[in-house]
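pls read this stuff:
=====
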Amino acid sequence: MPDIILAATQRCGSTMVVEDMQNVGVLGQPEEWFLPWSPEKPGINWTERLAGLRRRATGQNGVMAVKVMADQLQNVEGCLSTVVHPCETGDFPHFAAAFRDALWVRISRRDLVLQAISREMSRQTGINHATASADVPHFAGNLMKGYDPAYNEETVYDYDAISDRVTSIRAESRIWDHFFESHNIDPIQLVYEEVAADPQMAHIDRMATEIGLPRTWSRIPRRMTKMGNARNAEWRARFFRDAAERGSAGDHRTGP
C-alpha cells in the first residue's frame, strides 16, 4: 500500500486534514512524526528510528501517512543520509528516496497574511488549536478544549513580526515547490480555504482513490473548530493599511 506524505507549513490548515484522515480510519496515522529528529542527537540508530516511525504512522489496513513541515526537511535529510540510498538528483535526495513511491499531498493556504497572523497569534497565546466542545478528546498539541473567542484579546499587533512571518511562509513554500520540481513530483494540491468550506470532504475521496482504496468509510464531523476571529480580521486590515503607508503593499498580497 503506498505511503502518504503531507507536505505543509505551520498554520496552513494541515492539522484539519490530519483529523479528517484519522477520522475515516483508512488513511494512516499522519502526525509530525519527524518533529524530534535531528542529526545532532548522538547515538541514534536511524534505521530503527525510521522503522519505528513507520509502525506508529501505519493504520490497520497498511497505509502509512506522515506530515512533514518544510522547516523540518534539513534535519530529516541529515538523519536519513546515513540509512537511505539517495536519489541521483533533486533536493533532499535521501528524504525523497525514503518515500520514492509515496502519494504526495501539498497543503497550502491562499491567504498568506492570515496564515502569518495565525502564527503570531499562536506565538503570543501558546494556543495552536481548539475544539468546539470542552468534553471531546483530540490529538492536537497546544490545544484549547472548548473554544473561547476571548482567548486572543490580550495579543499585541506587530506589523514587523507579521511581515517577517509572511516572508518565512513564502520561503518555506518555495522549498516545497523546488523539491517537487527537482524530483518531477506532481502532488495533490489541497488549499485550506477550499478544504475548510467543503462539508463533503472531497480531499479524502481523492487521496483514497489515488492509492486504490474502496469507499468504505463514513465522514465524521471535525472536533476542531476555527481559531481565527474578529481580531484576526482586524489585524489583517490594519496590516494592509500599514503596508500601503510603507509603500510595500504590493509585497504582501494574499497569495505567494
Notes: The domain at 4-252 is CATH 3.40.50.300 (Rossmann fold). Residues 26 and 61 are 6 Å apart (CA to CA). The longest helix spans residues 159-182.
